[in-house]
Automatic annotation (TrEMBL):
Signal peptide: none
Keyword presence, Transferase: yes
A Pfam family recorded for this sequence: Glyco_transf_4
GO molecular function, one term: glycosyltransferase activity
Enzyme Commission number, as recorded: 2.4.-.-
Residues that span the membrane, as ranges: none
Location of the Glycosyltransferase subfamily 4-like N-terminal domain: 34-202
Coiled coil: none
Keywords: Glycosyltransferase, Transferase
Lineage: Bacteria, Pseudomonadati, Pseudomonadota, Betaproteobacteria, Burkholderiales
Protein name per the record: Glycosyltransferase family 1 protein
Species name: Pseudaquabacterium inlustre
Amino acid sequence: MEPSALQQLVVDNYPAARRSLRIACVTETYPPEVNGVAMSLARMVDGLHRRNHDVQLVRPRQDKAQAPEEGTRFHEVLMRGLPIPRYPDLRMGVPSKRALVQLWSTRRPDVVHIATEGPLGWSALQAAQHLKLPVSSDFRTNFHAYSRHYGIGWLHKPIMAYLRKFHNRTRCTMVPTEALRRDLAAAGFQRLVVVTRGVDTQLFNPLRRSAQLRAQWGVQPRQMVVTCVGRLAAEKNLGVLAQAFEAIRQRVPGARLLLVGQGPMQAELQQRCPDAIFAGQRSGEDLAAHYASADLFLFPSMTETFGNVTTEAMASGLPVVAFHHAGAGQLISSGENGVLVPMGDNDAFVREAVALASDAARCQALGGQACATASALDWRDIVARFESVLESVMRDTGPLLRQPLAGVVERPAA
């Protein structure tokens, strides 16, 4: 065989390796902070690192002693931060345009991805535009919706105006569901691309169920445990959760409520639900065991952009009762792998929660199907999609990827 023919054969069978990108990710929240934005972004950063990209993570310093992580393909830049009102365990960045211009002038990234729209995110957007760097963004938190739960609903329009201005200055905004893409497009947001969320099925799965943990809760093997995981705060609509559980107790007297998380509503909930199990903040295998050791997941929030707890509960084998919204609306086929109710119909939420809690066999069947649905949400596929969007942003080819990921189907409204 001629050398040129042999070389061509090698080229055909061993294509060039994927180009390694220099990616700057800017966020105002990151683990060990516990919230959906922090945890899902950490998955993306880890996935990009595993795919051989150089990642520069820019975020606020969470405590004075914290030192940045350094590695051959990972560079962490810790900026000054301030506590967020009503969220003392979280910090937001401060205006840092000059520092970021200096940083990116000496360590120039191929693309800047901004995960949050706070002062640090705005500074990153300005610095990137000053240096003519391509920028993408995430729409991860419904700050405009949160305003209604804290007596500042009048700020809804100005918050939306700021968010629209922010995101429309980037080449692409990633959103986790098709429904959110449609809503934001109708509100004037441009260049929107759906990049959904994944779930770690090695961590969250029914095999984590623990008889020992249930015994610690003081419940019997067949006793119904209803759970909700997340921040104990007004924007999570927990009044409806308490209402639903009170109705469940009338039909299933031995049922117990398990709340995993902490927040400003804890005292109020303890007074209203004195027999509830308040497990506090949990993580890792401990959190996975709490999910799998329950029997039914109630998710009353209507302010999520996705709601990672939905996929974690489904992967753990729990049927979910939720409003037709965010990740639940995308993943749950009502009556097949969970139950959806129309947005804002609190009576329907309570009614369906009671019906499902009263039927252990149906709970188990829907939970099995929920687990099967979640098994298709591999983080590797999500990261690959994220990577391809970043490459498109660098080429300035605009939004791409109209096809849904495997296992992700937008459900019709209930």
